[in-house]
Amino acid sequence: MRFVMCGAGAIGGVLGGQLAKAGFEVIFIDKIAEHVAALNEHGLQLKGVLGNHTLPVTAVMHASDIDFRPDDAVFMSVKSFHCAAACAELRRATALELPIFCSQNGVANEPTAGQYFRNVNGVMVLIGAKRLNPGEIVHTGNGPIGVGTYPEGLSQAAQDVAAALEKTDLPVYTTERIAQAKWNKMLINLNNATMGLTGLASQEARSDGEARLWMADVWEEGARVLHAAGIAYEGPPDMGPIEDRIAELRNPDFKPDVPEDEELKGRASLWQDLHHQRGEVEADYFNGEIVELGRHHNVPTPHSSLLLDLINDMAAKREKPGKYTIRDLRQRLQG
């Protein structure tokens, strides 16, 4: 089995890097020329919680540069707002009905991929990672990876890919309810905007009293909306759903450590969007989902609405992370 990683950013870099380290052939597709050049010239520099590794990989800028094979499995790891274009490019590049594995955040990517390919699977990725420098991926948190066929079931391709991932250093499980796993992860991603707006690393946010309570409120609001909409969600095995994480944040005795080394600090995806000054963020696929569902089911969504408005405004102005404090957010919420 060969793996084609459509996107060589934080998540694609960790998954593809780990597969390469396990001995699988991996090809990356990425649109950042400097990043592609660095991967080809110096290998993927995979750093972080599982050690530092230099991994020989191949990287191209276009799907048409690849001679696709029947044993290929394609991981979609581009931003959600690039998913349709990436799927269309792949479809133009091959007539093969390759299995697609959507490893992005949010819940819109699998339906999008299904417009182009028949065998669509989901990958729930609960890890921390960041791409700040060309050719370099830093793995900051080694949470579980869930694999299943979309919208439900467990195809042979999903089983084969899960078996391949089990040869890596990543904790992997399979599920026949991948859509529910992705909805739970989407709730977690609601606070990516919080960390982008405040500039807090994930460990810093969880260790700060004010930030913890704010994050718990954001998650609780999201869960209320999904309950009203009748959308089921579930957490990984032995971790529980979002309610367990809400209780954890509200526990005054919960005081996780913050690494002193900046490299090991987790940086949420929306923090990275602002840092790279891309001009857009994925918040519409996280907080935007909750706002739209809340509007449809008459559930107020003041937290996600505020986060969505503020971070989209920052992105449009190409402002760097850290413009607001948690106290600023509370004051704006209260009017």
Report what the structure shows.
The chain is of the alpha/beta class. The chain folds into two domains: 2-176, NAD(P)-binding Rossmann-like Domain (Rossmann fold); 184-333, N-(1-d-carboxylethyl)-l-norvaline Dehydrogenase, domain 2 (Orthogonal Bundle). It is 43% helix and 16% strand. The chain contains 14 helices and twelve strands. The strands form two sheets. An eight-stranded mixed sheet has the order 5-2-1-6-7-8-11-12, sandwiched between helices. Helix 9 (209-229) packs across helix 12 (287-296). It is globular and about 55 Å long. The protein starts with a strand and ends with a helix. The relative contact order is 0.12.
Distance between the termini: 55 Å
Please give the share of residues in helix.
40-55%
CATH topology label of the largest domain:
Rossmann fold
Instruction: Characterize the main sheet.
Output: 8 strands, mixed
Uncertain segments are none
CATH architecture of the largest domain: 3-Layer(aba) Sandwich
In total, the number of strands is 12
| Rg over CA atoms | 19 Å
Query: How much of the sequence is in beta strands?
Result: 15-25%
CATH superfamily of the largest domain: NAD(P)-binding Rossmann-like Domain
Strand order of the largest sheet: 5-2-1-6-7-8-11-12
Q: What oligomeric state do the depicted chains represent?
A: single chain
Continuous helix count: 14
How many domains is the backbone divided into? 2
